């Protein structure tokens, strides 16, 4: 996989202001934003580089206010790093192709993985099957 590297100005042109702040500056969007994602079958890709990240059949309602998934499409599509911002200890999830901040992963999800990828909706694009 080829890394995608762009300047801050190039990302600003491509993304909405909120998507830029979340994906490039690691901010978090407010919970319970309706991003208009289809309830149908498809996949969720990175809003910055279109890398496939999650399948719609791994999405679940965690009640957290952010889109949640119990697994990634390909473990190589994301990178994990330790995040101690805001006086918390969490595992940050980023796109492995363009380093976009996506959200965090927690160990309180459903079977079969027990994981909850808590992802900022603005960092995703839904692509129907």
Describe the structure.
It contains two helices and nine strands, in the order ααβββββββββ. The chain has 129 residues and is an alpha+beta fold. It has a single domain, classed as Peptide methionine sulfoxide reductase (Metal Binding Protein, Guanine Nucleotide Exchange Factor, Chain A, Beta Complex). It has a six-stranded antiparallel β-sheet. It has a three-stranded antiparallel β-sheet with strand order 2-1-9, with no helix packed on it. A hairpin with a 5-residue loop joins strand 6 and strand 7. It starts with 7 loop residues before the first helix and ends with a strand.
Give a brief outline of the structure:
This protein is an alpha+beta fold and 129 residues long. It has 2 helices and 9 strands. The strands form 2 sheets. It has a 6-stranded antiparallel beta sheet. The chain has a 3-stranded antiparallel beta sheet with strand order 2-1-9, with no helix packed on it.
Could you estimate the helical fraction of the residues in percent? Answer: 10-25%
CATH fold annotation: Metal Binding Protein, Guanine Nucleotide Exchange Factor, Chain A
Count of individual domains: 1
Question: Could you say what the CATH architecture is?
Answer: Beta Complex
Number of helices: 2
Q: State the secondary-structure class.
A: alpha+beta
The biggest beta sheet is recorded as: 6 strands, antiparallel
| Strand count | 9
Give, in order, the helices and strands. HHEEEEEEEEE
> What is the CATH superfamily label?
Peptide methionine sulfoxide reductase
For the termini, the CA-CA separation is 23 Å
Shape category:
globular
What's the gyration radius in Å?
14 Å
